[in-house]
Here is the input.
Amino acid sequence: KSFLQKLWKGNVSAKMLTPHLQKARREYLRANKLGVSYTGKHNSKKLNPQELLCVLKKRAHVRTLDGKEAPFSNLGWEKYFPQTPLNLLYRQGFSSCAVVSSAGAILNSSLGAEIDAHDAVLRFNTAPTRNYERDVGNKTTMRIINSQILTNPIHHFTDSYLYKDVTLVAWDPSPYFADLHMWYHKPDYNLFPPYEQHRKKNPDQPFYIIHPKFTWELWKIIQENSNEKIQPNPPSSGFIGILIMMSMCQKVHVYEYIPSYRQTDLCHYHEQYYDAACTLGAYHPLLYEKMLVQRINQGSEDNLLRKGKVTLPGFSSIQC
Ligand code: C5P
Here is the structure.
């Protein structure tokens, strides 16, 4: 069986990756830059899909900064964070949602119309819709951005159309044991000044910062349910986004996160850059995230192979 066929079955190990990617994973494990310490179990009991969904529903509570905790409370930042918590922003929630990965494999998929038919669409970082409508659609409800988007001028965060008229959710890797003080003073990329500026200029645009506790809780759930040691780095924006949508939607349809038969080393559909790490992971524990998502997929195998589409129940649709 090919690697891809094994991935579709959720049956892969880091040992099946290219030597280059195996080495990258080992080096992240050794460096452990964020000081991750994991003493919990490693897949001591393999959970069935329903049990896994219940673990996610019970523990993956979306959390964003609200300004009530120090140092933000002392800095008077309560006024900058949105009044409405993210999980209450869309009061009724959505019935059907799309999560659109930025993978090159979505090129030539003609999935655009299907994606736009959902009630809400989540996209990531710099992924455009203009000129790619046929394959990725053009509706964007929410965009998850990492801290580099806010801090690197190359992304034109303040004036690009990508970041207007959508709900923004930003995140930054924090050390595993850091409290908000330590993180505020030493973020990976300093997203706080551009966040403050953007909030002052655009107070009506919903714009959240993910609480690092949420990101690390997701990491722990991935690690606990994997057979191998996963990279000691936060999960990808894609995984974070899938879990956010599961808390806001009755059904979540994820496109080209687990690759279809169109799988390619082309990193992003909008860039001529080739690297298998974008799909299989180097920094992020992507391979393990994807196996976990594969295990809770309720869509058909045909949809996975042909569309790269996974269908997940939202938390409100799960009985635990
Ligand atoms: O690269 P970037 O993080 O902006 O891409 C958004 C998300 O799409 C990733 O976090 C990852 O979850 C997913 N992705 C993927 N395969 C790729 C590129 C992106 O699964 N080749």
